[in-house]
Protein: Protein-glutamate methylesterase/protein-glutamine glutaminase
Amino acid sequence: MAVKVLIIDDSKSMQRLLAAILSDDPMINVIGMASDPYEARTMIKELNPDVLTLDIEMPKMDGLQFLAKVMALRPMPVVMISSHTGRGTELSLEALSQGAFCCLPKPRIDDEAALREICAMVKSAAQSSASITRNAKQPSTAATATKRSRSANMPEVIAIGSSTGGVEALTTLFTTFPADCPPTVVTQHMPASFTKSFAERLNKICKPTVSEASNLTALEPGHIYIAPGAVGHTKIIKTDKMRTRVSPGEPVEGHMPSVNVLFDSLAETGCKNICSAILTGMGSDGASGLLRLKQAGAKTIAQDERTSLVYGMPKAAHMLGAASHVLPITKIADALLSY
Structure:
């Protein structure tokens, strides 16, 4: 069955361009075009689309405000397509934290790769729709943050994997981490230009130091390392001490960086004092790696369905028996910080 798409953009010419791009795919059916969020609200009720494409700058209400209302009142996959949501911009990260499936720049008619990507992202977004829940949005991080300090039973290292919805989940998680938290390595499915901006954004609001991982960096307490997107895979190796290794490679089951690659590498270090978690995301990346960590003696956690924007990766881990604990996002920090 074709994916039903509603285009929301105040530019008639952009509406026509997006409609032409999407309609060229036999698996996509453009069912309507709205010029502002109020018109879109009526059309959503009448047409029941599977996916929205949404601009940022529009009359009467901007796209981010409308996105927040959609995710609170009628959650559905939203693909942001705007001149203001280029790779790695603040507005892109804000849209992702509000629950957008992905953010794409407005396409040029001569950029065939960008045109194909729009169709691919719309179809991928539709596949996630069954997993987007009404309880996906969490209380603000300021409301959920609690004071924590380092304790003697903290793990030697923490490893985390996430994908769709991970921006908000990781923000909720890390704003409650203490300044001297165990070294933490994260693989979040993101394009290359997003991960550096995301790390910088987290670094401004979190007590630990957050940075993009680099090759052969020694893991230090009080540091969170975000795997760089698309350039290769991030592993954890043990030489004189635990280090990150960032090296080129091919996608693993469609992902680069891969959560399974991160988890498998950590299991190979022989370290026993490990806590690891799989958070919200589409697909099953990380499930087999989490099982391997559990078999190696690690504490393993999967985010629960109620608080996951997309209950794909955590569900796959749970179904595989890889998670020793299934917890809401607000409980995962405490669990990770205690081995």
Summary: The chain has a mean pLDDT of 89. The longest strand covers residues 28-34. The CA atoms of residues 10 and 49 lie 18 Å apart.
